[in-house]
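Quick one: Phage DNA packaging protein, Nu1 subunit of terminase from Chelatococcus sambhunathii, structure tokens please.
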Amino acid sequence: MPKGVPKQASTGKLPERLTAGDMARVLALTTERLRQLSREGAIPKSIRGAYPAEETIRGYVAWLRDEDRRSTKSAGESAVRRARARQIELRTARDQRELVPWQEATAYTQEIVGMLIARMQGLPAQVTRDPALRSKIEDAIDAIRTDVADRAAELEKGLGDSQDPDPADDEADT
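--- reply ---
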């Protein structure tokens, strides 16, 4: 029997009723936790400051064995652990520059492609003074620019809703 549990003199049985303090010691709980379990309906309510010993112990054991309570709790805890782990992975990847926010990557790509196209537009004049050849080079550059724009539109459409907002925005919520 746990230390501090009141003993019956000769029978070795628990008394019919135990005070909140004695019952808490028997169940290895605090008196506050004992009252909380009583409010939740897991164990009987105390009557004049005492708990019915056998009913309370049976109720507590049933509460401990309640598979639904344990599985729901552990499923919720698992989901929270997975979400936190994912958040830490994303933050670490971003900090190590392995992950770039969507807006930053898009702006970078638009800047580089825009500069390349602008430079290509001036290429025909740099290469030749022949109007026919210039026109041919301009047509080739226009075809490349159209191909790049079409491919960019396809890629953006393919991303759909997977365009993740900046993970830094999520951190502000936590």
